[in-house]
Amino acid sequence: MPYFSHLINSQVNDSADVMIGRLEDVLIKVKPGDYSALEYIIIKQRHHKKRIIIPYDAVENFSNEEVSLRTLFSKINFLESEPAGYVRLNRDVMDQQIVDVAGARVVRVNDLRIGDFEGKLCVLGIDVSFKGLLRRLSVSSLDFFDFFKVNLIDWRKAQPVEGVLKLDSVSRDLTKLHPADIANIIEDLSVKQGSNLVLSLDKNMAARVFEEIDPEIQKSLIGQLSPEHAARISERMSIDELVDLIQSLPEHQSKQLLDYVEQERMKKIKKLLSYEDDTAGGLMTTEFLAGLPDDTVSGTIEKIRHLSESFRSANYIYVIDEKSKYKGVISFRRLIMADGDEILKDVMKKSVHLPLLHPNQSIKSVAHLMTKYDLNSVAVVDDENKFLGVVTVDDVMRVLVPNA
Amino acid sequence: MPKLDVAEPKKKKLWPRILLILSVVGPGIIAGTADNDAGGIATYSVAGAQYGYHLIWVLFLITFVLAITQEMGARLGIVSGKGLSALIRENFPFKATFFIILLSFVANWANVLAEFAGISAVANIYGIPNWLFVLSSAGLISWLVISGNFKNIQKIFLTSSALYLAYVVAGFMTHPDWSAAVKSIVVPSWVPTHDFLFMAIALIGTTVTIWGQFFIQSYFAEKGVRTQDLNLARADVYLGSFWTNFVAFFIIVATAGTLYANGITITDAADAARALEPFAGVMAKHLFAWGLYNASMLGAGVVTIATAYSLTEAFGWEGKVNSGFAESSAFYKIFLFCIFSTALIVLIPNFPIISVLIASQALNTFILPILFFFLLRLLNRKDIMGAHRNGLALNIAGWVSIAGLSILNLSYFIYMIVSIFR
C-alpha cells in the first residue's frame, strides 16, 4: 500500500501509454467518521499551464511509478473547473496541522497512508512520525535497521485544523471530548486558531473548556477575542475561575471584562477579589447550593432539578439561616435517602461537628485539612460563623498541580 | 450549534489605548535589543575603535532595513497567527523547508556559541574561573526559561533591554565630540579599504539576523495580538529597531572617542572593556563588561528560544514557552542542547571559536536572502494576508533591502573565501 508522498508527482499515462502529465493533487471529501475515498485527480500537463481534473473512476492503476488511465486521453471527460466542497490532499492536508482527536493533541501531517477500503482507494491514516519526514526527504533508506517506527493516526480520528476553523460547527467527535482534552488541543494550537476553536464551541462548552486552559494561554486568548466574545465566555465560567482570570489580566483588559458582568455576579466577584490568591478565601467559590433550615427535603430536591448547569461540582446542600450563619451540610445521597417531608435542619450534619476554614488560611493548611478528613469540599466561614463560600478539592489540586 | 454572536466594537478611549500600547510592547524591543548581542557589541566596539565615526551613517541605514524586515515578520505573525517556519512548511515544498530550517539551525547554534564566548570573555576580565562562570550562566538561563512562565520571561528580557543603558552611560563618560558624532549620522564617509567594507557588512550581518526574523514572528503570533492592533505592534517594532541602533551608536561613540582617538586597536568586546579603563575610568570598564554579560545572556536566551521554536514548529513537535516541561519536551530538549553544547565547546581550550564564528557568519549571509525571499512571497499571498498584504511601496523596499543585503553579503562571502585561500 502506497504513501501519498510516493504518488505525488508521478507520471500519468493514458491507456496507450502516452504520458499526459504529472499527478499534482487529489481531491477527497471529508465525512466525519469515514475514510475518505479518492474522488478526483488533478494532472499538471506538460507544456500546459492549465490543470486537468478527472474523476478517479477513470484511473486504471495507481502505483508508485505511474498512474495509468482506462481510456485514451482524447476520450477522457474532464471537469471544467474544480468541484466545490472538496479538499485537496497535497495542498490542504499534507504538511498542515491536524487535531488527533483520540490523542487530544495537535500534530503535523508528514505523510498520508493510502489503501483499499471496501473496494475503494481511500485515505486510511496520517503519518506523523519521524520516519515520515525521512520518506519525504527521500532518505528513508538511510534508516537501515528500521530504528524509527511509522506512527499512523486513523484518518477517521483526525480533524484538520484549518477544516475545523472553516466549518461553522466543529466536528462532533471533537465536541464529544472532555473539556480538559479540548483545552489541551487549544493549548497546542496557535493563539489565533485556538481562539477560533473556542468561538466555534457553544457557550457552556466554551466556558468549561476555557476554565481548563493554562492561565498564561487564557490571557493570550482573551487578548485575541473581542471584548464581547470574552464576556460571553466569562458569563458562563464559574465565579472562582473567573476571578483568577481577572486577577491575571492587565488592568485595561480586566476592566473591559468586568464591564460586561451583571450586578449580582459583580458583588460576588468583588468580594472574592479582596482575598489573597493562595488562601482559602482566594480558592473558594461563592457559587454553591444553599437551603434554609426549615426548607423541606422534597422542596430542595425540586430546586436542584431546576438548577442551572453552571453549578457543576455541587454535591452538597449548605444549610444557612436568614442571618447567613452556617448551620450544616447535607450530601445529595443523604437528601435522596431522607423522607420528603423532613426539614433540612433535621437531616443535616451540624456545622459544629465539621471541620471549617477561615478565609485567610493558607493553601497548605487547606490541603492538609482536606486530606486529613478525606473531604471533597469544605465550607469557608468568617469569625461570626457567617457562610462565605466553598473550597473544593479540584480548586486545591489546580494550584498544587498547575500543569495538568 | 449556536455560534457566539459578534457585537459592534465599542468606541475606544484614550487611556485604554495607552494601556493597550504597553501590553503590546515587548517583542519588537526584545528582538531589537537582542540584536545587540555579544557578536553585535564586539562588532560595534571594534568598528568604533578602528574607524571612529566613519561607520555611523551605515547604522542609520540599517535602522530602516531592520525596521522594514521586522515589521513584515510581525505583520505576518499577527495576521496568520503562525510562526515563520510553520508557514514555510505549509506553503513551500518539504525539501526546501527542511533545507532552510536545518541551515538556520546551524547558523543560530553558532550564534549561541558567540554568546557563550562573550560570557567567557567577561569571566576573563574579572579573573573568574571560566568553567564556573560559563556553566553557572548556562544553568541560570536554562532555569529561567524552563521554570519561568511567559510573562516572567518577558519581564526579564525587557529589564535586560533596559540594562543596555549602561552603554549609553559609558558613551557619555568618554566625553566624545558630540557635534562630530551627530553629523556623522547623516553624512556618509568612506575609507577606501577592504577592511572597511568588511566591517560595514559585519555591522549589517549582526543586526539583521535569521533568528531575529523567526523570533519576532513567533512571538507576535504567540502573544495573541489582534489584527486591529497591528499599528501598536508596528510602533513596538519601530521602537525596537531604533533602540537597537541608538545603543549601537553609543558603543561606537564610546570606543571612537577614546580608542580610535588614541590609535588603540582591539579585537573584541572584552578588549574594549579593558582598553577603556585608562581613558574613561574604571566605571566605564565595568559598564562595558557588564553590558557585554547582559547582552550575551539575553542573546543566548532569545536565540535559543527562537531556534527551538522554529524547529518544533516546522516538524510538528508541538511546544510553547508557556506549556511546561512535560508538555513540550522537544522544545526544551532542543533548547538545552543549544545552551549546553555551546557552553561546553567554549570551555575547550584552544578551540578555534573565531573560525567557527566566521563560518557561521558566512552561512548567515547565505541563508538570509533565501529567508527573505520566502518572507516576501508569503506577505504577498492573498489567502494568508488578506487586506494586510504588502503594498507596492513595501514590496519595493523589501526587494531593495534583500538585493542590497545579498550583494553586500555576497561580496563579504567572496572576500572571506578569497582571504582564506590567499
Could you explain the architecture of this structure?
The complex is a heterodimer of chains A (404) and B (422). In chain A, a hairpin with a 7-residue loop joins strand 2 (19-28) and strand 3. Chain A folds into three domains: 1-156, Roll (SH3 type barrels); 164-274, MgtE N-terminal domain-like (MgtE N-terminal fold), CATH 1.25.60; 284-400, CBS-domain (Roll). Chain A contains 19 helices and 19 strands. In chain A, strands 1, 2, 3, 4, 5, 6, 7, 10, 11 and 12 form a ten-stranded mixed sheet that branches. Chain A has a four-stranded mixed sheet with strand order 14-15-16-17. The longest helix of chain A is centred in the middle third of the chain and has 11 residues, at 263-273. Chain A has helices spanning 4-7, 89-93, 130-136, 161-166, 172-175, 179-188, 191-200, 203-212, 215-224, 227-236, 239-248, 251-259, 263-273, 280-283, 297-305, 332-337, 344-347, 363-372, 393-400; strands at residues 11-13, 19-28, 36-45, 51-55, 59-62, 66-69, 87-88, 97-100, 105-108, 111-117, 120-127, 152-154, 158-160, 289-291, 316-320, 326-331, 349-350, 377-381, 387-392. In chain A, helix 6 crosses helix 8 and helix 11 crosses helix 13 (263-273). Chain A has 404 residues and is an alpha+beta fold. Mean pLDDT of chain A is 81; it is low at 164-170. The longest helix of chain B has 34 residues, at 282-315. Chain B is built from 19 helices and no strands. Chain B starts with 13 loop residues before the first helix and ends with a helix. Chain B has a single domain, classed as Amino acid/polyamine transporter I (Up-down Bundle), CATH 1.20.1740. In chain B, helix 9 packs parallel to helix 13. Chain B is mostly helical and 422 residues long. At the A-B interface, strand 9, helix 7, helix 9, helix 10 and helix 12 of A face helix 1, helix 5, helix 6 and helix 12 of B. Chain A: It holds the Pfam family MgtE_N. Chain A: This is CBS domain-containing protein. Chain A: Keywords: CBS domain. Chain A: GO terms for molecular function: magnesium ion transmembrane transporter activity. Chain A: InterPro entries: CBS_dom (IPR000644), CBS_dom_sf (IPR046342), Mg_transptr_MgtE_intracell_dom (IPR006668), MgtE_N_sf (IPR038076), MgtE_transporter (IPR006669).
